[in-house]
Write a structure and sequence with these properties.
It is a single chain. This protein has about 100 residues and is α+β, with helices and mostly antiparallel strands. The chain has one domain. The chain is about 25% helix and about 25% strand. It is built from three helices and five strands; from the N terminus they run αααβββββ. It has helices at about 10, 15-25, 30-35, and strands spanning about 45, 55, 70-75, 80-85, 90-95. It has a five-stranded antiparallel sheet with strand order 1-2-5-4-3, with no helix packed on it. The chain is globular and about 30 Å long. Bound molecules: zinc ion. Zinc ion (ZN) binds near residues 45, 47, 49 and 52.
Length: about 100
């Protein structure tokens, strides 16, 4: 897995970006769908689970996310994609049980 901090999500993971945008539109989250490609990769998830390819798109919180935090559980064909949103911005892209991150 190559998670390079600072790259845009659209550049780093073009296939995932297209998929996330489509899944978000299906949920009626058009503004978030438009934002996906322009997000910046902040860092990889530090959990080290081998089924986890999650990454942050903002600095991880010191402890739990506070007010204004919610999740969107998407319905991809493969694995699980869950987004953490804080103040209408995607801050963490949970990518679980997926073969590749592209
Ligand atoms: Zn993880």
């Amino acid at each position: 897995m190559d998670i390079i901090p600072g790259r845009s999500v659209g550049e780093a993971f073009p296939e995932l970006t297209v998929e996330l945008a489509a899944l978000l539109r299906r949920e009626g989250e058009d503004a978030l769908a438009i934002s996906v490609g322009g997000l910046r990769v902040h860092s990889a998830c530090s959990c080290r689970d081998d089924f986890c390819k999650s990454f942050y798109t903002a600095a991880p919180p010191d402890g739990a996310y506070g007010d204004g935090h919610w999740n969107i559980m998407l319905e991809p064909v493969e694995g699980m994609l869950i987004l953490d949103i804080v103040d209408d911005e995607i801050v963490f892209v949970e990518v679980l049980y997926r073969e590749r991150l592209t």
